[in-house]
Amino acid sequence: MKILLVEDNEAIVKMLKMYLERLGHDLVIAYDGDEALSAFENYNFDLVITDYRMPKMDGFTLLKNLRKISRDVVVVLISADKNFEKNSDSVLANYVIKKPFSFNVIRSILEEMTCKKSQ
Amino acid sequence: MDNEKVNILLVDDRPEGIYTLEKVLECSEYNLIKASSGQEALQKLLTGEYALILLDVQMPIMDGFETAEIIRQRKKTSHIPIIFVTAISKDDHYVGRGYETGAVDYLLKPINPDLLKSKVKVFVELYLKNNTIRAQELLLKDQEMAQQKEKFNAEKLADLKRYESLANSVPHMIWRVDLTGKPEYFNAQWFDYTGLDFKQSVDKFFSVVHERDLPEVLNIWKRSIGNSNIDSFSFECRIKAGKTSLYNWFRNIVVAEKNDAHENVRWIGSSTNIHEIKEVEKKKASFLSIASHELRTPLTAIKSSFELAEIYSSDDIIDIAGLQKIFDVGKESCEQINELLDEFLDFSRVESGHLSIKPTKVNISQIIQNSVESYIPKVKSLGRLNLNYSIASEIYGKFDGPRIRQVVDNLINNAIKYTPESGNISVCLSKQDNEVILSVADQGIGIDKSNLDKIFHAFKRADEVEHISGLGIGLYISSWIVGEHKGKITVRSSLGKGAKFIVKLPLNSSSISI
């Protein structure tokens, strides 16, 4: 799967990169919303994993812009806020996961996507 | 009866007797009242005040002695002097009886006009003197009462003034309402803050309360104000300031004033401005939310590193280099959490006054150099930045080395954090007169002019960096440390044009309080 990871924290990027590449996925990394949008215009992604709190553009704004380009791409929004799901904008994301998340959650999302694709 | 004249009662059954007395005594000063019998005399005495009674002894039915006895028995008349007039009284028996019944003097017929006049004059003068004394007594009493009343009123007024000046000297708004809730009094602070006059305050008492708080306020008010079982009640609400039309939070405490029977008679209210406290509460809540947010990011990295290490270590051939990378991430993230906790602690120490500066003689050039060098690997790994520095060597002074290092670290860290694109970061240390000047300049996002004054306050990060991670207390602590060294931290910046922070520290150690 081609995955776009949007995250400004170097440590989290390193860990997710090692994990996802180990599972055999193709990963592109963007450190902010602008980088993410330009990457999104150049490649076709199956999945976008994005942090909410980022420099320049927050996760919601990025999500709205992504949805203008693609309504189908699966988006996972990562947030550190407990009450995040109450925000109406979060419906634009397919999944909302909270920090600190477990790799198992990411894996089950990937498996679910694979299942749907094969159906 | 004429008030100006003195009443004299003439009692005689014979008209010629009365006539003689009348003729002798007739004058502008006397009012001569005539009675032709004892009964008539007693009747006349019932009304009016008499100075003297001239009483004929020999009268039919009730003679002079009997009449005199009754006059003496009556309380109202017992004090009136009686002069007996008689033709037969040369005899001692008569005289004696006359004195027994209360006569004060005798006049013998035929009347000697001069003697009569002089005797009457004496008694009238006595009467008048008594009257004057009585009048003076009454006057004195009146004056005394008036003085007492005046004193009482003056004391009451002084009390009132003292009460008002007391109410006006406190920072709170003080007001008083009756048992129906109708306002009766406001102190100066009320008028000053609300901008209303007395009439407006009475008519539109609740108009100053924020509409969002009004239903709750009215609810408590109606429940409490007429309730005789309640001694006090309180509520918080926003109250509009007349000058700015802005609302501030107030805590209102309303206490019942009691009478001697311990019944509520009115309510006294005090409104305390708690806006700053509320703002701090709000900021602290937002600080806690930011802080927990900030902790979750390195925590996520640590959790991921454990999970990943677990996965890697289950491989048949262990990828040592991969594992090492994972452990490094875990360690770095632990370090990041530690730094955050240090920041929390510093903040709470500054707030509670427990952070102190311990200056010793140090080479500040070395401290700055060490700080800059520690950032070189990070800047290199990011790739987008150039870190330039020009540090004058061997500047010695009395500083708290670790705290100064903290300031430089904070400034360089900020410069890196807020320069997301490529750019230069310049650190410069120089000595000028008796000052050491440190500047850290970047070409990053900059700070809007309207935010420049608030970046050194706790929790007040500039609006444009809301999305960038950080606690918003780094500059607050840095400016506190610089301030404790009697130095100054300033910033020059505008939006999109980078920022330059300048720290000036005095080298004269005597100016540092230890």
Question: How would you characterize the overall build of this protein?
Answer:
The complex is a heterodimer of chains A (119) and B (514). Chain A is α/β, with parallel strands linked by helices and 119 residues long. Chain A contains 4 helices and 5 strands; from the N terminus they run E-H-E-H-E-H-E-E-H. The radius of gyration of chain A is 13 Å and the shape is globular. Chain A starts with a strand and ends with a helix. Chain B has 514 residues and is α/β, with parallel strands linked by helices. Chain B is 47% helix and 22% strand. Chain B has helices at residues 15-25, 38-46, 64-73, 92-100, 113-169, 188-194, 198-203, 214-225, 275-313, 320-352, 364-382, 401-417, 474-484; strands at residues 6-11, 30-35, 52-56, 82-86, 103-108, 173-178, 183-186, 232-240, 247-258, 264-273, 360-363, 385-391, 396-399, 423-432, 435-441, 488-493, 499-506. In chain B, strand 6 and strand 7 form a beta hairpin. In chain B, helix 9 runs antiparallel to helix 10 (320-352) and helix 12 (401-417) runs antiparallel to helix 13. The longest helix of chain B has 57 residues, at 113-169. Chain B is rod-shaped and about 165 Å long. The interface between A and B is medium-sized, with 25 and 27 residues.
